Every structure is written in structure tokens, then in C-alpha cells.
Amino acid sequence: MTDLHPVRAVTLGLNIGSLPRGKRNLISDVPGVRVGHTTIDRGEYQTGVTVILPPVENPFVHKLTAAAEVINGFGKTLGLVQLDELGTLETPIALTGTLNVGKVHDALVEYMVGLCKKDGIELVSVNPVVGECNDSFLNRLIDRPVEKEDVFAAIENASADFELGAVGAGRGTACHSLKGGIGSSSRIVMLDGKEYIVGVLVQTNHGRLADFTLLTGPEREQLLHRYDGAAPDKGSCIMVLATDIPLSDRQLRRVLRRCPVGLIRLGSYIGHGSGEIAIGFSTGNTFDLHDHTAIQTVHQLDERQIDQVFRAAAEATEEAVLDSMLTAETVTGWEGHTKEALFPLLRPFLESGNVTTGQSLRR
Hints:
By secondary structure, the protein is of the alpha+beta class. The protein has one domain: L-amino peptidase D-ALA esterase/amidase, CATH 3.60.70. It is 23% helix and 26% strand. The chain has helices at 80-86, 101-118, 148-156, 219-226, 249-256, 259-265, 307-326, 347-352, and strands at residues 14-15, 34-42, 45-53, 62-72, 88-89, 93-97, 129-133, 174-175, 178-179, 182-191, 194-204, 237-243, 276-288, 331-332, 338-339, 360-361. It has a 6-stranded mixed sheet with strand order 5-4-13-12-11-10. It is globular, with a radius of gyration of 20 Å. The protein starts with 13 loop residues before the first strand and ends with a strand.
């Protein structure tokens, strides 16, 4: 049996769906996409920021197709109104704790002002996209400990290889009554004989242990009794999807609607107090700020082929949520509150074979 240290779903042999995983099994399998974290781990402050960078040097100059889908709007996300109206992304996407959203938004504005100055552009309008989860159980959120320098550091440290679990914006979050965090996964889709990637990154802070479908059998009742499995489903899950498949913003929004399937397969019913929001972008078309051609040519997926993209979004989201829990360690924070890691609790379930993702556990 696997040693009891954090692993990913693939290490446990969990067969999630039918599509192959990307090389890293991360959102950064989409060429050029990078992710950076700044983690704040200072006693009563357990929080941070995570930044997803699109694969263009200046996203304000080279805008990408983008969309958002609000499944349950109990959230404080910024930037979605323009995203929905214009269908393009012009900044990195940042994730953080609820009351830090304004500070992170301001930092992204400053970052974009500096980036555009290098390109000789005097920026007078920009639309930063910031998502959030409420990490106030583990983090003294009212003090808003995330600073501008933390956002800049996350951008500076961004890489195709990045950590998962209780890091960055996932440092203080919880999932299904246990420790949540940052998770990511990817799927390969074949179109016209060519490989394309659908990648998902999640910030998980949702769900009830009583509804968690991964764990079954008599050991489950002991766990529910110990960890208050009847607690309400509240907290939020932000899902960020990236793909190199050429999609229109309308098609992308259709794909984003399938991300919650991954949450539901693991047992979330998306409760009243939980903000589930999906944000996505495609690198398949780039819209140059300096191109003033009246009629522009774009590539777009034949919609008769979109089912496998739907499947990829659902599978990658499900595995990303699982990995956010499997890779997270136990965290103790504000007022001594603790959220325990999932993986150390798995031994009896692994020994009895009572671990399932609704499909099969490969042995």
C-alpha cells in the first residue's frame, strides 16, 4: 500500500474518467500557461494568493477568448461583467481570500500599468479578474494580510511546475469538512488527429463530509462522527479552465457549465452558502490590440465535436478537486482551528478497498 504521505489521485490508481491525462496532469499542460503562489503561513494568518498567467507576454495587448459561468453566485469575484460582455481576457487571473479581493485587484492594476508602460501604452482602463474563497475558519481574514508584494511575488515565481494542496489561495480553505486547497488536472482531446489540452485549476472550499462520495463502507460512519459530517455546504469553489482548443466565448461558456459535474460526482450539491464560479480562457485565438482590421478571421471548433471537450472539463475538475485534498496537509490557524488532511485518514479505506470515485479503483 502507498506510504501515508500526500499523493495525487493518479498515484493511488484512481481511474477518473476515460480521457488520457496530460503530461504534467496540470492546467499548465496547456502550452505556455504558468501558475504562481505566495503562501502566508504565520500563525493566525493562513491564506495567500494564486495567479494563473496566460501564455502571452502582455495579455492586454494580445487578448485571449474568455468566459465565465456563475453556478451559485455567493461570491465576491471581480471582473466577470466585462469578461461576459466582451469575451476576452486581458490580465492574469488571481485567486485569494474573500476580503483580500480588492487589494489583489489593485495589485493587478499596478502590474498591468507597468507591463503596458514597457509597450508604450498609457493604461486608462483594464479589467483584472479575481476570484475568492472565504478562508476565515483558519485565517484571521478581517486583517486582510495579502499585500501587493505577495501578488507580484506569485507572478514572478510562476512556473509550469507548481505546488498543489495547502498553498497560495488554498492555504486556509476546507473541502468536504477536511483540508482543501489548490488542485489541478488536465485531459487530452484528439481533434483532426492532433492533441489538444483541457486543463483545470481549482480553489476548493466547499462540500460536506456526509456527501463525499470517495469514501464508503463502515469506516465512513466513524469518520462522519469524528468530523461533523452534517455541517452545511458553504464556502465556495473557484474553477479556472484553460485550453488550446479554438473556442468562441459562447462555446467556452458551454464548456464551463460542465465543470460542476466534477464537483457533483464527488458529492457536492452546491449549497446556498457556497459560491461556485467557473472562469475559462482559450489560447486558440489571439486578438491583437493594434490590429484595426474591420473583419478578423478566427478559428472555431465544429460544435459537433464538443462532447469530448465537455467530458474533459468534467473529468479534469473532478480530479483537480480530489488532488486539492490529497496533496494538502493538516493546517492549524486562527483561534487554534484545525482542518485535517484527507490522505492520513485513508489507511482503513485503502485496506478495505472502500475508496471509489464512482468508477473503478485500479489495483
